[in-house]
């Protein structure tokens, strides 16, 4: 019996709890472990990037969010959206616009209507 899904859910729960309790350095290890278990779990990439953001390591976060698209494809829509937000915040509007457009495409392909709706209000013109 494959325990991978249960393992991932347990790790994600612990990582989420650590982030909620502002224990970002500890959560990094949990999300890295998730990636070792399944490198295509977009939640692990998103959690890892969010931890680096919280620790002020935005360049690492941008890079991780970008890698998520390579590892997870369209399931990385939320990572791509996070990357777009970071790029926009630092004033890199051309790359932010491209990332927003990719995030919308990914969200549409994954039928993530909630994210599509959120992005429609954020995409810079």
> Which structural class matches the secondary elements?
mainly alpha
Order of helices and strands: HHHHHHH
The N- to C-terminal Cα distance equals: 50 Å
The poorly predicted ranges are none
Radius of gyration: 14 Å
Helix content: over 70%
Largest sheet: none
Number of strands: 0
Strand percentage, roughly? under 5%
Q: What is the global morphology?
A: globular
Compute the number of helices.
7
Mean pLDDT: 94
Features:
mainly alpha; 80% helix
Describe the structure.
It contains 7 helices and no strands. α1 (4-20) packs antiparallel against α2 (24-37), α1 packs parallel to α3 (42-54) and α4 runs antiparallel to α5. It is mainly alpha-helical. Helices cover 80% and strands 0% of the residues.
Show the helix and strand layout.
Elements lengths: L3 H17 L3 H14 L4 H13 L3 H15 L4 H13 L3 H18 L2 H10 L3
Helix pairs in contact: 1-2, 1-3, 2-3, 3-4, 4-5, 5-6, 6-7
Give a brief rundown of this model:
The chain is an all-alpha fold and 125 residues long.
